[in-house]
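Retro notes (design track)

What went well: tokenization of the new backbones is finally stable.
What didn't: we kept losing track of which sequence belonged to which structure.
Fix going forward: every design gets posted as structure first, then sequence, in one message. First example under the new rule, 91 residues:
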């Protein structure tokens, strides 16, 4: 199954200037593992050394926010989109 992974422009340099990549996987976690294998310079900008998504980023599977480690086990389907967004905060 291929999942389209869209990354913020600040990370495009790690995937050859592209705005998105297709990565095979059966869960969000396996897609992230696929990124680690195929794009080793991109992966540490998304996940920390423990495999957790970096705190300044949000992941969305299609329109659903993936916030905690349990959701990384969420299954994905062919054609799904995993969106990596920088978190925005302030007041």
């Amino acid at each position: 199954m291929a999942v389209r992974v869209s990354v913020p422009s600040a990370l495009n340099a790690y995937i050859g200037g592209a705005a998105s990549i297709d990565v095979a996987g059966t869960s969000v976690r396996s897609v992230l593992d696929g990124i680690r294998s195929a794009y080793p310079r991109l992966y540490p900008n998304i996940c920390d050394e423990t495999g957790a998504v970096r705190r300044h980023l949000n992941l969305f599977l299609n329109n659903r926010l993936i916030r905690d480690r349990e959701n990384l086990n969420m299954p994905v389907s062919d054609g799904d989109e995993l969106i990596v967004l920088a978190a925005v905060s302030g007041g």
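Added context from the reviewer: DSSP finds two helices and five strands in the chain.
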